[in-house]
Amino acid sequence: LENFLTYHHMDARTIYAKFSFARLCAEAGVRENFTEPVEDVLTKAFSRLCAIDSRRWISFLLDILPRLDDVDFSALEDNEKRMLNMFYVTVWQEVIEDFSADMVWERLYALADSPVMLGELIELLKYKLNTIDFIDAPADLPYDCTLDVHCSYTRDQLLLALDFMKPKTLREGVKWLNDKQTDVLLITLNKSDKEYSPTTMYNDYSINSRLFHWQSQSTTSADSPTGQRYINHKARGSHVLLFVRETKNDACGAAPYTFLGTADYVSHTGSRPMNIVWQLHQEIPAKFLRKTQQVMG
Questions:
Q1: I need a labelling partner for 268 at 20 to 30 A (CA). Which of 115, 124, 149, 225 fits?
Q2: Do 279 and 225 touch, CB atoms closer than 8 A?
Q3: How would residue 143 be classed by pLDDT, with cut points 50, 70 and 90?
């Protein structure tokens, strides 16, 4: 797979629009035909798996996937369970609520019993690991977190990493996690009239590599409990996490968010909505800065 992509200067997602690489090779007669239990579900998941770019997460998957038959999933450490759940929701579009559930074991064992598809998955992850072109870093948080700054995650992946177990119920771009005293801000920079109503066409952009202008929901006033939490989060000991994406969708469906890390309140103007300036703890890399500033023209 890596040789093919490198030789043809192709994006892996181009292959995975309809087929797996193994199936393409079988159709072309350059490998034996095969029948495996997870072919359909994994073929559909490959394009989503192409977006994974966290060294820590990929390294965990490369360690655990070849030995799925020997893993006691319920005995995994908390961070390992989070990363496995992030993988599971990416492939099967469902959340692991109970690691001892029969369905979870059956699906993961079916993957172990699919050597061709599992082999391609491992090859894809190795390719992704070898082509990461940025430096990531752990998030500046007082609790265990499997998210790495400047890596990309879907809504479901990042919320599971933060122990919110019902990610598909989130319909807005903000989430307060009371148990972690954390505000999660999910930001889409370029919004189309078709996808967003006038009340959700927020004005979000980076001012420079450290400062980010964010517009709250239209119902949030400066003196509301939510507005006060944004303003006074540092004094209260709560945290703010910024996740940013360029557009709502890409060629593979819902676009993932880039994790910009933790941020502190600097100032605000207005009310309903509030226009807040956040100061990021880590600078936005140049490759991302071009995207986050482009809405300013």
A1: 149
A2: no
A3: very high
- What sign results for the dihedral spanned by CA atoms 39, 41, 44, 48? negative
Measured CA to CA, the distance from residue 6 to residue 131 in angstroms comes to 11
pLDDT recorded at residue 294: 56
Tokens of 260: 């910009």
pTM of the model: 0.91
Task: Tell me what pLDDT residue 297 has.
Answer: 45
Residue with tokens 């992509």: 5
At 74, list the tokens. Answer: 């319920």
Backbone φ and ψ of 5, nearest 5°: -65, -40
In the chain, count H helices and then E strands: 11, 12
- Residue 145 to residue 272: CA distance in whole angstroms: 32
Closest CA to 109 of 101, 83, 98: 101
Burial of 191 (0-12, 13-18, 19+ CB in 10 A): middle
Domain edges within the chain: 2-130, 137-296
Alpha helices per DSSP H over the chain: 2-8, 12-15, 21-27, 39-49, 55-64, 78-92, 102-112, 115-130, 155-161, 225-236, 286-293
Q: What is the pLDDT of residues 102-117, one digit of tens each?
A: 999 999 999 999 999 9
Structure-block tokens of residue 244: 């940013």
Residue 204 CB-density burial (10 A; 0-12 exposed, 13-18 middle, 19+ buried): buried
% the chain with pLDDT above 90: 73
What CATH number was assigned to the domain covering residues 137-296? 2.30.280
